[in-house]
Predict the structure.
Amino acid sequence: MASDRPGSASSGRGNRNFIGVLKRAIKYKMPENGRSIQPKSAELASRRPPPEPEPIGLTVLYEDEHLIAVNKPPGMVVHPTYKNWSGTLLNGLLWHLRESGTGRHGDLEARIVTRLDKGTSGVVLVAVTAQIHTRIQRDTAARRVRKQYLAIARGTLEPVRGSIALPLARSAVDRRRVVVDPSGQESRTDYELLYQSRDMSLVRCELVTGRTHQIRVHMAARGWPLVGDVVYGVPDERIPRQALHAWRVTLPHPMSRQVLELEATPPADMRSLLPTDAEELDVWSRALKR
């Protein structure tokens, strides 16, 4: 016999409130298909304590009381995740700020502005206060911040310079991957060939937009996957990661407005992929002078 009372149901044992049952089910994580529902990563992260300072060596490219730029090595995670809660760049930054007296650990004043994938090396920009972080974000939105990368791609680029404008979205099959999707976000990468060997190209890429995996996906979509990229290309025994380096970040200083040009030298694993010419002049040295 149905009850006239909204949100309730009746049984042989009497009425019971359906909404109350639902609330208890949510609270106690009722089993799903015979298995208990696992907390999501965001929920796990919310239970963890704040990241702790750790004595991790950092290569500081620039530092003042407002911002820091460091050269991230390949293989280092930028920000703690539920899988990598320690040993990250942020842990090292918190230690650096505490030791230098610049930042306050309790306020988590190391605010990373330019994030990089674990396998990508190069310039990471860090704001020391929330105000500075907001100012740099505004400059980024106004396209006053330039981010240039160096990549080594498979194949021959044709044309040798241009733009790749393809919309990007998370894959519906694997959320860790990004795919070209007509319904995705507008994305644009400008590129220029710096050096061509028989089967590889040294390319300078500039992000006009800043989507996840943007350079890697755009280059692969044009038939030029990055060397060593196991997600969007093929593995390469010569390098254990994608050959991608955040080379240069140019921006107006958030306080003085003086233009800062911050550069990080490409690491040895990428440099070793390209030969030295007959006159013993490093390919990289010639390319970076442009």
User: Anything to note?
Assistant: Confidence is low (pLDDT under 50) at residues 1-16, 18-37. The radius of gyration is 24 Å.
